[in-house]
Structure formats: C-alpha cells, structure tokens
Amino acid sequence: MAAADTQTQIVAMLESGRPEVQAAAATVLGELGAKAPAVVQALGAAAQSDHESVRLAALEALGQLASPKALPALLDALAGPASTSPAAARALAALGEAALPGLQERLHGAPPWAAARINEVLAQVAGKKGLSALLDGFIGQDKESVIKSSLLFRHELKTVDPKERRALLPQVTRFLESKRAAASDEATLGALRILGYLEDERALDTLLEFAKAKRASAVRCEALIGLRFALGTRRDAPEVAALLVKLLADADKAVARTSLDTLGNLAPPPSALPAIEKLALGEDAELAATATLRLGMLGPKAAASLVRVVLAAPEARAQQALAALGESEEARGALVEAVLEAKSDAECARLSRLLQPHARRLAKPAIASLSRAARSRLKKSMAAAEPLLALLGLADAAELATLLREEAGRAPAERARELYSALLKSDRAKDDDRLALARLELARSNLDLASRSSDPALELFSALARRGIPLADELAADQKLTPEHRFYVGFHLSEIVGLSREIGHEVLVEVAKGRGKLARQAKAKLKTTGYEE
User: What pTM was estimated for this model as a whole?
Assistant: First the structure.
C-alpha cells in the first residue's frame, strides 16, 4: 500500500471515526510527519473538535509538523477552550518566526485574556522578531501577564546564541525610550525584566536611570532587580553601589528594600554601613529586619552598628541584631562592652538580658570585667547590680558565688542578708553561707514563739539541723547572739522529730546552764520533749 493511500485512510479515520479513533489517527499523522495540505487541513479541523482528547491530539500533531499552513487553525485554538490552549501555544511556538505575523494581527484589539495567551507564545519565539512582537504585546497588558510572558522569554533565551543575545539589547533599550513604553508602566516593567535577563553590563546605565526616575514603584524596583542580572558575578561596581546607598533613604519603602537587597550582591562602600544602620533603627519593621540581617552579613566591620541596634531597637529587633552579631568572640566582646558602658540601670538590665543567651560562651576577661562591674554596682544598690549578677551566674557560677560571698562578708547586715539570699539560690552555696544568713535573719527576728512557723531564720536553722550541722557550738560561739536567741532556736528544733530534735536539745542544754527564768524554761522544754541526760 502506497504511503499516500495510507495517509488518506488515516485522514478518513480522523474525520469520521469515534473520538478515541480520531485521537489515535491524529497522533499517528504527527509521528509520520505527514505535511500534505489535506493532512494539515484535517488536523486543523480536528483541533476544533467538541472532544478535548481529539483537540489535544490534533494540536500536538500540528506542533510536530510545524506547518505554516496550520497557522489559522492554531490561532483559533489558542483563543479556544483553556484546557487545550497551552497545546496550541506550543504548536505556534514550534512555527517560530513564521507565526509572528498572525500573532501580531490577532494581538491588535484582542481582549486582555486573549492578548495574554498571545504574549505567552510570543515569549517563546526567541530572536529579534520575536522580541519585537513581545515588547509590542506588553502594551495594554496587566502586570501579572507581563511577568508571566517575560519569564517564558527568559527560558527561551537559554537557547539563544550569546552573540545573538547581545544583539537584542539595543532593541529593548529603544523600546524603553519610546513614548509607547513611557505611557505604560506594565510595558516598561516587562521590558526592564527582559533587559535584566539579557545579563549584559551594557544595560547598567539604562537600569540605573529607571531606578532613580520618577516612575511607579514597581518599575523602579524592577530596574533595581535587573541590576543584579546585569552585574552577574561582578561585586565591584562603585557607581551602582553609590546609587543603591542613596536609594536606601528613598521615601518609597519598596524601593529602599529592593536597593538593600541588590546592594547585598556588591562590595558595599564605607557609606553603606551608616545608611543600613539607619534603616535597621527605622520605623518600618520589615525593612528594619532586612537591614539588620544585612548588617550581620557584613561581618566584624558591622559589629559596632549591630550593638547600637541592640541598644536602641525594640526587643524583638534587638534579639535579631544579637543573632546577626553571630558567635564570634569579637561580637560577644562588643556586647559586653555595651553592658559595661550602659548609662542607666534600665539600659544595663536590658542589655544584660539580651546577652544572657551568649553568657556561657563569654571569655574569662569578659567575665572578669562583668564581675568588677557588678561589684561596683553593688555599692549603689542590690537592684542596680541584679542584672549583672544574673548574667554572671550564667557565665560562671563559681565566680558569682565568690563575688556574693566576699561582698556579703564585708557588707552591712541588711545588704549582707540580700547577698547571702542571692547566693543560696545557686548550687554553689556552702553550709557556712547558710549559717551566716540564718544568723542574720535571727538577729532581726522578734523571737515570738507563737509566730515562729513563718520565721525565715528558723527555716534556715531547721535545714542546717537536718544536715547535721553542730548548731549548739556555732550559736555559742557567736557573741552577737543572746541567750534568748539560742533558746528560740533550741525551742523550735526540739519540737521536730529526728536529728533536729537532738540538735535542739544540745542548744537548750547550753541555755539551761545559765541562771534565771530563761534557764528554767529551757530545762522545762527539755523535759517535755523527752530529753534524757
């Protein structure tokens, strides 16, 4: 059977068979590469079928054949049902520049949804003619459609020879300079996207002009993004960096944010640091967060700026600045320095709290500095020193215990009581510390036996008794304590079953050795609590 006869039979099946037979016939014709006018005409008719499977198979076949004679049918299919228009778009793109006249003709006067489909096809036809049609197609389109088409064009650019790609730049530049582009922000935006996608440094001047021009925010931002593509891997571009730094202060926050992001691709000039710091301290939370992150990426040279953000920014942003400072010893040193130089108790407390997550990694010199500062603040008040004491406890518990113990040993009674109380909250307290606080509490007790259950002095002595501390000897050796103090403690302990009672008896025995009413009361208490000589 001759090939022509075979094609005739398959075409007949395509024209009159069941839907599944028609779809199969269309697929076979595409695979055979049959480009006879009758075949193309039959596939074009099938592309308008009521059955989606037939339409898809016919459009896929026409894409394989890439016959210009199918253009009218493909254009009709492109404007047809949404389920099969992508297949029509692929078939039209396969025609290449041969499809451009028909696409451009349909583009004029097309409703927005139809124009968007045509633009997507134009974006897939690389080369000067395809680009020209695409740029013209941007006129009158919405932003979303323009972006989608430009992304498709970017994909097609990957197949274009580098030399040919360079030749496209003047075409885009001329379009951007035209009155048509000036009248359409969407068209300008699309052209700027394509200009960036060309990845050509010759586009820098044009992109810079649009970035600083009095145009819509989206247009300016697109120009700034285009700079990243045009620069490629180049980091040293002083003229670009200078403009970006200037735009960090732009009233349009979107422009400032995009400038900041683009600046991240370059080696920033010295003027960038204060400008970024200003953003990090600004009122726009999102922009400030981005600026703080950017400062962190600049490394040690931005440490001082980040510390200033920690000092002045709200809590959440200060925490972010802390995180941006990183784990370097230099960064932690800068924070410690800020704590030490705090001008007020409130600022010291805030900075100490922010530094706490880093406390365990502080170096010994930093810990020593914090310890000295805490001792100095203790001269003012316990409250003034508490933030530093808490920080020191996290950094070096042993150093904190030594500090509290030494300062308590030479402080007036009330301050010593506060210091020992703080020391006993740590796991570094010793029995001598507990005994010292117990004595201080006892010295200020009203010695009221009726209300002794709430006396902190007795709580401490009871705990010491349970630990087997020889309280009788300790109390007898303390010349500041009176027999009344000793009786009070012994009375309380003697009512507790166990070791505490034994120690309480020892204390009362010493009191009973005296004379007078108190000695008689001690003997009576010994008797009622079961003491045996």
Answer: 0.60
Coil, strand or helix at 17: coil
Q: Give the span between the Cα atoms of 357 and 310, in whole angstroms.
A: 14
Query: How far is Cα 434 from Cα 423, in angstroms, rounded to an integer?
Result: 9
Tens digit of each residue's pLDDT (9 = 90 or more) over 296-337: 888 888 888 888 888 888 888 888 887 887 766 777 787 888
Task: Report the alpha-carbon distance of residue 181 to residue 171 in Å, rounded.
Answer: 13
Q: 3-class DSSP state for residue 104?
A: helix
Q: Which amino acid is at 347?
A: E
Please name which of 132, 133, 124 lies closest in space to residue 63, comparing C-alpha atoms: 124
User: Is-contact 325 296, C-beta < 8 A?
Assistant: yes
- Residue whose token pair is 């999102």: 286
Task: List, in order, residues 6 or more apart from 351 with CB less than 8 Å away.
Answer: 310, 311, 335, 338, 339, 342
Question: Whole-angstrom Cα distance, residue 264 to residue 250?
Answer: 17
Separation of alpha carbons 297 and 143, rounded Å: 33
Closest CA to 92 of 72, 107, 111: 72
CA separation for the pair 139, 469 (Å, rounded): 93
Kindly state the tokens that stand for 94: 């396969």
How far lies 17's CA from each of 24, 34, 42, 54, in Å? 10, 19, 13, 11
- How far does CA 513 lie from the centroid of its chain? 74
pLDDT in tens, 357-397: 888 889 899 999 999 999 999 999 999 999 999 999 999 99
Q: What is the distance between the alpha carbons of residues 327 and 426, in angstroms, rounded to a whole number?
A: 27
* pLDDT score at 435: 96
